[in-house]
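Inverse folding, one chain.
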């Protein structure tokens, strides 16, 4: 694993709808194949997670925020969740001090996305 203090270029984030459709379709068809048999068909890996704008804007408003990073974590039922944090221009996570409780005065960590399944968005080319 390589470690870098350099953020990716903004232009490198964009792909075509056709590529996004192909990638999400491949993921939906294969997501359970990467799981051990005892975890298959248990909705361990979601198709998507939705976060409200306010949560994303709060991350972007953090002092020195230059990017957003997505980590993946698991809850007590072994279900995968996206965890979003702000990142500074040195590519470092902006996190609360060790032992700090979440408050308006501390940097935020976003989770609690609306997981699909069970709460899926309306049909689109990315989820049919």
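Residues assigned per position:
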């Amino acid at each position: 694993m390589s470690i870098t203090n350099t953020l990716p270029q903004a232009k490198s984030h964009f792909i075509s709808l056709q590529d996004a459709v192909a990638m999400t379709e491949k993921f939906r068809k294969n997501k359970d194949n990467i799981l051990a048999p005892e975890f298959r068909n248990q909705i361990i890996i979601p198709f998507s997670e939705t976060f409200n704008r306010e949560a994303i804007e709060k991350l972007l408003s953090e002092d020195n925020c230059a990017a957003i990073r997505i980590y993946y974590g698991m809850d007590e039922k072994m279900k995968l969740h996206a965890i979003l944090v702000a990142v500074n221009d040195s590519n470092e996570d902006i996190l609360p001090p060790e032992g700090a409780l979440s408050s308006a005065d501390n940097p935020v960590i976003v989770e609690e996305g609306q997981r699909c399944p069970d709460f899926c968005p309306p049909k689109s080319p990315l989820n049919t």
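Residues 48 and 116 are 5 Å apart (CA to CA). Residues 15-116 form one domain.
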